[in-house]
Amino acid sequence: MANDKHPDTKVVQGGRRKEWLRNMVNVPVSRTSTVLFDNMEASREAYPPVNGRLSYGRNGTWTQWSLAEALTELEPGAEGTMLFPSGSAAVSIALTSVLAPGDELLMVDSTYGPTRHFCDRELKRLNVSTVYYDPLSSPAEIEALIGEKTRAVFMESPGSLTFEVQDVPGICAMAKARGLSTLLDNTWATSFFFTAIDKGVDLSVVACTKYISGHSDVMMGAVTAATSHMTRLTRTSRSFGQYVSPDDAYLVARGLRTLGARLRQHELGAVKVAHWLKDQPQVARVIHPAFADCPGHAFWKRDFTGSTGLFSVALKGGSAADLDRLIDSLELFGIGYSWGGFESLAMSADTDNLRTAALRDYGGPLLRLHIGLEDPDDLIADLSAALADYPAA
Ligand SMILES: Cc1ncc(COP(=O)(O)O)c(C=O)c1O
């Protein structure tokens, strides 16, 4: 598909090649391990594996290729996309593809917890050191951390739990000038609201488990690469035997087709609920990238085309136990370690043990909300009843 189309058109049309559709609307689920060839010459021509040429089950069929192609088309300037069994697998393989023993990684302090654990455990074991930087660091401040062994800068914008928005284009320009690879966890915005590759990111990671699939019933990750990083991403991914099933690829592609409609509805609901929360006496502040007082809001305004359903609320005083009671009393919000599905969720956003470079006091416990596709007025009524019993300072 020509790359001049709008994101809404791309999520509907992307990856739906005529030869893969075979007169159906959706690319069918085609399962296989073994691929049979007409003769030996054809078996040799199947390698190296490329999307669009059957070789072996692990290298996918049109079901997985179609999804990968659709995700690539959402990122102007991208070369291709590799799929992974989870968002965390996508993060760890992307990092492994650019790092070698003896290297150093600059990692944003507000990164998703398991990403941090991968760095502190697995990368450390492989003699790769990690230096954490404050998510509010300017490109120049990050540049000052670069040493002889530094090879890559990892960003997550907005950050997990605390939603700091980073100057991704500025950091990428600096990193490129210093010969470093750049990686971004783009799960919150997805490439629907933030195109990463054309802003200078080399490897853009999305946990499709969240908004891309959107229905809380499948796990998957994807890494979309700039041309300069596609070969190493492909090689590392294949060497580690990464694979997603056609059944899961079908579910994620099915979710992708409605991504635009869902994200805008999440955005509307979340902004309405967040505005209401901001004025409640029990709330110290709302941390939402579209709000002017969110750290890095100017970068959100400059670089993003929308906001999604996930944000945090700092309560005015009260204890962690008070927050637990508040969450337990909610009726419409599920309690779960995820987000990005059609349903609303609430979770305490405890950053203890997840920050070393940017320790911030928000004055009270942090509540993370995912605003689903329910009517926001019903969610506000639910929150109102729960907040009424909160012992605010
Ligand atoms: C920002 C972010 N990145 C990556 C992941 C990992 O995705 P998965 O749960 O599919 O491994 C998550 C999951 O919550 C996440 O919130």
UniProtKB/TrEMBL annotation:
UniProt xrefs under InterPro entries: Cys/Met-Metab_PyrdxlP-dep_enz (IPR000277), Cys_b_lyase_bac (IPR006233), Cys_met_metab_PP (IPR054542), PyrdxlP-dep_Trfase (IPR015424), PyrdxlP-dep_Trfase_major (IPR015421), PyrdxlP-dep_Trfase_small (IPR015422)
Keyword Translocase: no
Cofactor dependence: pyridoxal 5'-phosphate
Pfam families: Cys_Met_Meta_PP
UniProt superkingdom: Bacteria
Chaperone is among the record's keywords: no
SUPFAM superfamilies to which the protein is assigned, alphabetical: PLP-dependent transferases
Record pathway: Amino-acid biosynthesis; L-methionine biosynthesis via de novo pathway; L-homocysteine from L-cystathionine: step 1/1
UniProt entry keywords in alphabetical sequence: Lyase, Pyridoxal phosphate
Reactions it catalyzes: an S-substituted L-cysteine + H2O = a thiol + pyruvate + NH4(+); L,L-cystathionine + H2O = L-homocysteine + pyruvate + NH4(+)
EC number: 4.4.1.8
Family from the record: Belongs to the trans-sulfuration enzymes family.
Record protein name field: Cystathionine beta-lyase
Species this protein is from: Sphingomonas daechungensis
Gene: metC
